[in-house]
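User: I'll paste a sequence; please echo it back and then give the predicted structure.

Assistant: Echoing your sequence first, then the prediction.
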Amino acid sequence: MHPLALTFLIIGIPALVGLTYVFVRGSSGLRRYVVTRIILTLPMIFILATVIFVVLRLLPGDPVTSALGPRGSPELKARMIDDLGLNDPLLVQYGRFLGDIARFDLGTALTEGRRPIADEMGERFPATLELVVPATVLALLIGLIPGTIAAHRRRQAPDYAIRLFSVIIYSIPVFWLGLMFQLIFSVKLGWLPVSGRIDAITGIGLERTTNILVFDSILSGNWVAFRSVLIHLVLPVTTLGLVLSGVFVRLTRINVIETLQQDYITAARARGIKERVVVYGHALKNAMIPVVTLIGLQVAILLAGAVLTESVFSWPGMGRYLIDRILARDFTAVQSVVTMFAIFVAMISLAVDILYSLLDPRVRY
């Protein structure tokens, strides 16, 4: 199976499990809600694909001029434009684009070797996923627990310290923090590698099935590669996770404070329930709904917006790929990548909506 298909299968498993729960155990109201969300997703993807198709053709420049440069002869440019189908009417190009997307045919890149876009995404998308997912988990760990502590110890020393941390860490540019980590832990101390996903020599011998190197090293039993992958993940994941954690700290603190002021929390305390259970078992759970929304939004944004972290650590992910293709005016690649991002974001939104139903019973009716 193609690495890109395997990656989307891995991503889609939680959504499929959630859908199974909804249609087997969920109420009729919840089923209608989820079906409506799925139906509304299709126009969203269509509109986004249409907008990106139009915008790319309004921008100055074209892929032929970008690929050939100033030395390309007019005859060569004209022949290449004709070969790429850029002389066809816009409606013909648009229809061809929608037809390819409907068949999940991402097409061929217009520049840099004209490789199939699915192959290029199969190399790049798993790398971004391998960076974004653990960074989000780390941001949640750093954000939820201190945010809850700050809410519980409101206007005390822990609260002030945690709030100061959240403001500082969220204000630091991600590229600057990454460079400082490289300088300290790689250059000065020599503990961690400066960049890359895996040691060059170790990576040659690793059999790549999904291109998510953590999974591939486990599946192949290559523990040397597994250790190398984890070591290379430490700095970029820590950099991205720390910067992202600031917003989770503040959002968690605000919502836990509001929840702790509710009547049912007062009633729980009056019944003698332990304070730890009240705060972490009741207040935090009910304060998680806005946080879940933010998780979905942040993961979607990070998939396309981790370009600074990828650039600092020479991480061959989708952020850098998309920027390169935009600069090259590669219409086909940009259209296909943005559309695939839209599908992925739709899957995340659906998973978040299903999770809503588990956290907030009011959604089920």
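The mean pLDDT is 78. The radius of gyration is 24 Å.
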